Amino acid sequence: MEAFDYTKKYCTVGAGCSGLAAAKNLKAHQIPCDVIEAEDDVGGNWYYGKPRSSVYRSTHLISSKPLTEYTDFPMPAHYPDYPSHAQVWEYLRSYAKTFGLYESIEFNTAVERIEKAGGFWEVTLNNNQTRRELFTAPAAAIITCRNISLQYRVSVHGQKISQLEQ
Hints:
By secondary structure, this protein is an alpha/beta fold. It has helices at 17-28, 65-68, 85-98, and strands spanning 2-13, 33-36, 105-106, 111-117, 120-125, 129-134, 142-143, 152-156, 159-164.
């Protein structure tokens, strides 16, 4: 397994709503960041038809447009109060394009493991690559994926705080 030094960058896992917001704000503050996304485009759960998406063809937002949109990037005026999944996905793609986030996203790459390694984190990817990266806090990672496809054990300073299973 190859090891790569990315210790000058922060890592965000997932390019859905939260991952895009994290990447945009890190970039706005000139903080180097890369985003690791398992699918071939942004959108996370809103990328209908992909294995990690759980939306149905008929899905619409259940929160209104003004309560869902990013504060610095309103949804298009012609969108209905409760946009469809396709409109939400297009909105997220537009957000990523507008703020130049696509260049920071590594698509078709899944994170298989994240482990603390001294002052950094070792991020093991599905392409047999291991990277040493920074995260936003000494004991936390920006993990923004809604659908967890593997079992995760989350701990802070060695104390187990949760375990999620499929």
